[in-house]
Every structure is written in structure tokens, then in C-alpha cells.
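Lab meeting notes turned into a lecture example. A postdoc, R.K., suggested we walk through two folding results consecutively so the class can see how the record format repeats. The first protein's sequence and C-alpha cells come next.
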Amino acid sequence: MKSLAIVVREDGYDKLLTPLAFAYLQGAEGTQVDLLFVNWAVRALTEDGAKGQVIQGEHADQDAWVRQQVEKAGLPPDIYDVIQALKATGNVNFYACSLAASIFGVNEDNLVPEASGIVGASWFLNDKAAKAEHCQYF
């Protein structure tokens, strides 16, 4: 696969982990991966938001155990560290949806430096998702 577009709309440690793991695996193989963070997930593209991600709901009490298991599997246990590892592959781009950024308080000042910018959802769909070989929505 040459290109993959991923739209991430849900936040929470475990809900972010799956799309980031797909991005990591494909990016490590040389696939160009573009991720758009929408809705609550856009907050994960701020350092505070990424570091504040926890497991929610029925598995909330297993947050520490899951992080240990993630580390044993070879991934960094913190979301921001995963974002940095993905960016280091040179094949992964992170974009914040402009509408979500406006609603959830993300701007150029608090966006992580690993992000490629704040963009419109239409731009992402036309320039990244429509041209990608495969699209995923989480």
C-alpha cells in the first residue's frame, strides 16, 4: 500500500491507540499516512490533550495495566510519545480539523509541533482521503 488516510473522531487512550497503531505499522513499512483528528480527538494534538488521555468507561480501572501491556508490545505507553514516534518515521502527517479545533480550543499556539497544521475537513477529504489507496474511520 502506498497511501492511507485515517479520520480519528474519538478520544480516550484506548480509542486513540488503534488508529495510531495502524498508522505506526503502515508508516514503518513506508506507506504515506495522513490522519485527520476531528471532534474530541482533536485535543490529542495538543501536548496537554495527548498527555491527558485515559481509558474511559467500563475499562477505566485498567488504564495502568493497559499502558504496561502497550509498552511490553513495543509501543511507547503515552499518546504523545506515540505521536512523536510516528512522526519520526517520516511517513506520517497529523492534521487538526479546523471546525473541531475551533470548538475544542486547539490553535496554532497549542498544536503539537509534530502536527502538519489545522485544515478544513473538505481539504483533507479531497486532497488526502480521496487520493489514498485506503481510508479508515475511527
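The second example is placed directly after the first for contrast:
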Amino acid sequence: MDWKRAFMVTGAIGAPFIALLAFGMTRDPRQIPSPLPGKAAPTWTHEVFAPGADPAQQRTVGDTVRLADLKGKVVVVNFWASWCLACRDEHADLSEAAQQLASRGVKVFGMLYNDQPANGVRWIADMGGQSYPSLTDPGARTAIDYGLYGVPETFVIDQTGKVAHKFIGPVTATALIAKVDSVLKAGGAGGADSAAKTAVPAKGAP
């Protein structure tokens, strides 16, 4: 009968989807593996659009920052956007961490994702300032190179230029400083651990 055939066809098509859905229900959406930790950080060259307030982190607006020039230092790169609500949650912690880490020679940069610098400048002012500089990422090319899932995401790059750790979602000052200290202690010989899984970041743009 036609209805039997239709039922069988529907079942054949729907079964894989149902199986995939059932598998997905067993997974924690906050657990997002990343292949980047342990590998060379994709290089980038970007312009400063927000200078940062901490004298040791500060860069002049319009300056060009090259990751290659920072080899030998631990570098923290935080991808963010003015439309990202979760970025508000971590902003004060990131500013605090950047100030504390400056004395250890660590460089912290914000990287604007899928947003306009003017929006970023207004957002920083609304948030009461920022201790570290922020950079443009035209076309989100660096975000793509880093396999960004969304914002906020924060990468810790060791002294050899490898990604030592990736934080997904809002990061706390305590967690970031502890991770950077472990990377500093390892001196670039500590390898990498798996990506931190703290929260699913916001996707795309408004």
C-alpha cells in the first residue's frame, strides 16, 4: 500500500536524523574541542584602534602590531565584540588580569570580531575603560584562522608562538592569570592542554 511505502521512506530518511539528535542530546554543548592548542598560532598583523590605559600594555592608536614581533613573550588574545553580552561579563576581569600580567611581561590584546571600531571605542568607554589595547580584524580573517566559534574566546600563546590554551566564553581574572603563570613557568616547553570549556560563546553578529 502507498501509505506503507510512504511510512518506510519517511522512516529511512528520518532515522539518521533522529539518531543524530539522540547523540547530540548526550553531548554537553559547552564541551567544544579545539584543534589549535599545541599548534603554532596563526600569525597576524593588525592596527590598534583603542590604546589601552595601562602604561605597560598601552599602544598608540594607528600603530601596527605583529604577532611575529612578540615571539619570546606570552601573548593573550581576546576576541570580542560590542554586541556580545557575554563580553561584558569578562571585561573587568580581563582588564584586571592585563594589569597584573603586565609586570610579568605578558602582552594582552583585544581583537574586535565582526564589528566596527567606532562601536568598539564607544563600548569600551561605556564599560569604564580598558587596560589593554584592542586591534581591528578586517573581514574577521584572523578569527577564521583561529577557528573562532563565537565570542568571547581567549587564546594564550606561549613564548615559542604556540597556542597553549583556549578559553571559550567569559574568562575570569583568576583563571587567566593561573593559566598564564603556568605557561610562564613552563617557559614554552609545557606543551598545550585541551581547550577550556566554560561556556558557549555568542555566534555571529547582531
